[in-house]
Amino acid sequence: MNKQLFNFVDYLESKKTVDDRALNRVVLNKMCDYLHEMARQKPLQIVEIASGIGTMLERLIDWDLLPSATYTMVDVNEKYILCAKEHIQAWAKQQNIKFIEFDDKFFLQKDDKKFEINFCIADATSFFSKTHEKYDLVIAHAFLDLVNSEELLPLLFGAIQKKGAFYFSINFDGETIFLPQINADLDQKIIYDYHRVMDEQKVGDKTVSGTKVGRNLFAYIHNAGGKIIEAGSSDWTVFPRENRYPHRENYFLHCIIDTVSQTLTDQINYNINSWITSRHDQIEDAELVYIAHQLDFFGII
């Protein structure tokens, strides 16, 4: 694979509005209603794995969905944790949320709700293998296709207290669409190979769950001892409005096309340079429509 062609931190920021639209509100609201019921009994402990730059935390607080809680952000990349700290501080200031930093922890207060934010640099398997904490909620956002979820989930569920919950959002489910078509046969071939190479990726010696993780999570969750309370589609749908893309979603689209390019480099025996160039040109001309099918899950242990 080629060296990454784009800045991943900028990519995470640019896709926030894409995720905002995509998240299944029925699943999300069911999760938040359950959290508020749990919060009547005790302070909540929440952990998010592969937390990136903190956009999920910000979203849940912005949308007034979280009760007071201790929220632990886990990511394997130290750079993303550092960026998350900067991002959260800037966001708190912008939103007039009370912010205190003490002993490498953040303390936020919005109205009558208080949040303690902890940070941990670790991969998911290592974190759940070593933690002695029992969490009320585990969040995994746009992540479970990148690991072997069938093997991770029993570890993850082992860190959830009885009657605790999980929220797995933006789980890819095998459908990628670029419009308008350039060449129907070539488009289909590129998407087929793009998915094939993703499915062949490994983390260590484990093959990742890949492009069908969305539908497979129904079985993975059941087999690992979880109970699905709600599930629903959370498709990315990116298209121009009045000849422009909202927010920085044009950058997000350029990143997606670059990802296709770098994924297929040295993995195919035909040339896609012209196709890649045409897709970037469509973005510049505010013509490209991108759809990716995904699923969200909320459940309990």
Description:
The protein has 301 residues and is α/β, with parallel strands linked by helices. The chain is 42% helix and 29% strand. The chain has 11 helices and 12 strands. The protein has helices spanning 8-14, 16-22, 25-39, 55-62, 78-94, 124-130, 149-158, 184-200, 213-223, 249-264, 273-284, and strands at 44-49, 69-75, 98-102, 105-110, 113-121, 135-141, 160-179, 202-203, 206-207, 227-233, 236-238, 289-300. A hairpin with a 2-residue loop joins strand 8 (202-203) and strand 9. Helix 1 packs across helix 10. It starts with 7 loop residues before the first helix and ends with a strand.
How would you sum up this structure in a few lines?
This protein has 301 residues and is of the alpha/beta class. It contains eleven helices and twelve strands.
